[in-house]
Amino acid sequence: MKRPIITDIRATTVTVPLEAPLRHSNGAHWGRFVRTIVEVETDVGIIGLGEMGGGGESAEAAFAALKSYLVGHDPFELEQLRFKICNPTASLYNNRTQMHAAIEFACIDIIGKFLGIPAYDIIGGKMRDEVGFASYLFFRLPNKDTGAGEVRTADQLIEQALSLKKTHGFTAHKLKGGVFPPGYELEVYRELAKAVGTDSVRYDPNAAFTVEEAVRFAKGIEDLNNDYFEDPTWGLNGMRRVRENTHMPLATNTVVVNFEQLATNILSPSCDVILLDTTFWGGIRACVKAAAVCETFQLGIAVHSSGELGIQLATMLHLGAVLPNLVFTADAHYHQLVDDIIIGGPMKYMGGKIAVPTGPGLGVEIDREKLGTYADLFKTLGGYLYDRDPSRPGWFSTVPNTRWANPDDVSADGILA
C-alpha cells in the first residue's frame, strides 16, 4: 500500500471570542484567543490538522515558507520531520519549535486517518478513555459588549468556580494569579479553597514573585489541599530556592520546557511536577518522551494548556490517554471560550472529564463555516497585545513584578472597544 506524501500546507488565522477578557501576570487575553489552524495536504487526499497559538499574516507566511521542507515528505517519518524543521543548532537562528508541533499534529492526524486508527494507538495505546481537567479560573475584565463576567473579588471568583463545578463537574481548581498584590491574592485563594471544600486547588502567578515573596506565599497556603504551587518565581535557581523553603510540590511550564532543562532539573531538583504542553515542547511525541523520563526519575507530570481550540485540545486528550504516570488533572482554558472551529462545536465535560476522541487520527474535523467566520473576524479585528493589560494603559510587566493592579479599581465597560 502506497504511503501518503505531503503535497501542500496552508495556514489560517482565526480569533474566537471568550466569555470575558482573561488577566494574567504579563497582561491579558483581550476577550478572544488568536490561533493559527494548519492543514497539511497529501497525494492520497487525506488532510491532517494542526494548530498553533497566535498568528496573523506573519504566521501564515512562516508556515507557507516551510512548504519546500514538506512537499515530498512522508508523514510517517516523524524523526526526520523534527530535524528538518527544528534541528537544535539551526534553530538558534529560526525558533520553529511551536511550528513543528502544529505540523507534527497534522502528520499524526494523517497517519491515523491513513491507517484508520486513533492517534493514541500511534503513540502508545490508551490507558484511559477520558482525561480529567481542573477548572481554570482567572481574574477577568468585564465583557465589552455585555459588561458581564468580571472577576476581581473573592466573591466573584468563588461564584465563577462554583458555577463551573456545577456545570462541568470539576473537582480541582486552578487560579491564574500574578495580577493583584500577593497579599490580596493570598486572601482570595484561601477563600476559594474554603469555598470548594474537599476539592483540590492549585495556584499559578506566572513567575511574577520574587523568591522571598514566593516563600511567604507558600507559607501562607501550605495548610490547603494544594495539588502544587505553579511557577511562583522565575528560573531554575529561583524555583530551587523556593522549593527548599516549602513542603509543597512545585510545578512548572516555563523553566522546564525542553530535555536539556529537564536533565538539569533531575541533576539538581528545582521542580517536582513538569507540565507538558504539546505546543511548547514541540509536539505530542516530545511530551510522551518527557513523560517517560519523568516516570524514570519519579517526577510528577500534568498536561498543560496554552489556550487551545479543539484541534490542540484533541492532542492534549490523546497525550493524556497514553501516559501511565498522569495522576494530576490537566489544565484547559477551553471552558472560557464561547465557541470552537470543529464539527459538533465545543467538546463537552462530563464529571470534570472529556472523553478521548476515538475517530481516526486526532478524531476531530474542521467546521468550514466556523473556520470562515472566525478567520473573517480576525481579519476585521486583527491581533491583540498579549503582554499588555487594556485596563492599565502604559503598564507592562517585569520579572519579578512590583507594579500590581489595584483590586479596588472597578473595571469600566467598553475598555476593549
TrEMBL record:
Protein keywords: Lyase
Stored SMART domains: MR_MLE
Single GO MF descriptor: glucarate dehydratase activity
Pathway noted in the entry: Carbohydrate acid metabolism; D-glucarate degradation; 2,5-dioxopentanoate from D-glucarate: step 1/2
Residue stretches making up the Mandelate racemase/muconate lactonizing enzyme C-terminal domain: 154-249
Gene3D superfamilies: Enolase-like C-terminal domain, Enolase-like, N-terminal domain
E.C. designation(s): 4.2.1.40
Keyword Lyase appears in the UniProt entry: yes
Pfam entry (one): MR_MLE_N
SUPFAM superfamilies hit by this protein: Enolase C-terminal domain-like, Enolase N-terminal domain-like
Enzyme class, UniProt record, top EC level: lyase
InterPro entries the UniProt entry points to: DgoD-like (IPR034593), Enolase-like_C_sf (IPR036849), Enolase-like_N (IPR029017), Enolase_C-like (IPR029065), Mandelate_racemase_C (IPR013342), Mandelate_racemase_N_dom (IPR013341)
Catalytic activity: D-glucarate = 5-dehydro-4-deoxy-D-glucarate + H2O
Cross-referenced PANTHER family: D-GALACTONATE DEHYDRATASE-RELATED, GLUCARATE DEHYDRATASE
Name of this protein: glucarate dehydratase
Species assigned in the record: Pararhizobium capsulatum DSM 1112
